[in-house]
């Protein structure tokens, strides 16, 4: 999507400003808020117009091509597009990050696009399981996470509607309940649970079509940094799940509970033993 034109790591140097959509996430004065809201697109919380022209005193030329995403728009008119490197740079300057390293902008765009594609793949995975209701979701998840992809394929009947992305919003300063819980656990038992909080959070609003009706489902995405690869490449982890609404909580419980039950009940072991027995019988016949 035309998403956050900023890098997703607040712990980098000043040349790489902290992640957030190009909208203020604090609470500005009312007059300032009204003026700002007139400048942004309510569908994606981006500035309505992002110039492709080089910025004043820009020392390096940046590409102006926009890469299409694989994420369909909720409006039905094609897929979301990512901002070009030039648009990203202009948005950073417009928000006040005047010390942005222009030579790093293309890398920022690549990483951002890659993370968005990964987030959407996770959302599609959730929608494939629960897009036709909780019972269908339980059927897909009842044999554990390791078998859920196969179950999803077996349960498909050709009536599934692909999800679409209606809008999205960056909320880097708002910790989710799950993150708060882990941070408290880390404070109480640092040797076991201490972990760095996510460096960013997004909320994505997805259109789910079921039974001729359309329902808006909110997903929460927490972005984490991992230890870099031996080659120096950065590592990121995404935690993508439905928001903690009554429906979202039920979906999360079913997916997590199905996996736990499958393993704790011994079903995983019994299935393996049954498969080994079948293979042994077939081998003897041959």
Automatic annotation (TrEMBL):
Coiled coil: none annotated. Its EC number is 4.4.1.17. Residues 24-33 have a biased composition (Basic and acidic residues). Belongs to the cytochrome c-type heme lyase family. Transmembrane segments: none annotated. Keywords: Heme, Iron, Lyase, Membrane, Metal-binding, Mitochondrion, Mitochondrion inner membrane. It is found in: Mitochondrion inner membrane. This is Holocytochrome c-type synthase. Residues 1-35, 58-82 are annotated as: Disordered. Lyase that catalyzes the covalent linking of the heme group to the cytochrome C apoprotein to produce the mature functional cytochrome. Its main location: mitochondrion. GO terms for cellular component: mitochondrial inner membrane. One of its GO terms (molecular function) is metal ion binding. It catalyses: holo-[cytochrome c] = apo-[cytochrome c] + heme b. The gene is cyt-2.
């Amino acid at each position: 999507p035309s998403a956050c034109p900023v890098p997703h790591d607040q712990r980098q140097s000043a040349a790489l400003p902290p992640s957030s959509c190009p909208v203020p996430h604090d609470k500005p004065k009312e007059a300032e808020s009204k003026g700002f809201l007139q400048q942004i697109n309510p569908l994606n919380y981006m500035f309505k117009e992002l110039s492709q022209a080089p910025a004043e005193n820009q020392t390096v030329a940046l590409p102006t091509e926009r890469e299409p995403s694989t994420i369909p728009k909720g409006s039905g008119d094609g897929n979301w597009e990512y901002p070009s490197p030039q648009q990203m740079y202009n948005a950073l300057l417009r928000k006040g990050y005047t010390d942005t390293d222009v030579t790093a902008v293309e890398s920022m765009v690549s990483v951002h696009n890659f993370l968005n594609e990964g987030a959407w793949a996770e959302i599609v995975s959730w929608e494939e399981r629960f897009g036709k209701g909780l019972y269908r979701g339980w059927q897909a998840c009842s044999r554990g996470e390791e078998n859920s992809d196969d179950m999803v394929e077996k349960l498909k009947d050709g009536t599934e509607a692909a999800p679409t992305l209606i809008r999205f919003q960056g909320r880097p300063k708002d910790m989710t309940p799950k993150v708060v819980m882990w941070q408290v656990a880390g404070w109480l038992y640092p040797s076991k649970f201490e972990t760095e909080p996510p460096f960013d959070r997004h909320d994505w609003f997805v259109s789910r079509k079921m039974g001729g009706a359309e329902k808006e489902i909110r997903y929460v995405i927490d972005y984490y940094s991992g230890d870099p690869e031996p080659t120096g490449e950065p590592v990121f982890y995404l935690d993508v799940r439905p928001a903690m609404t009554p429906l979202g909580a039920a979906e999360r419980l079913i997916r997590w509970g199905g996996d736990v039950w499958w393993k704790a009940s011994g079903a995983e072991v019994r299935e393996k033993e049954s498969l080994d027995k079948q293979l042994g019988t077939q081998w003897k016949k041959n």
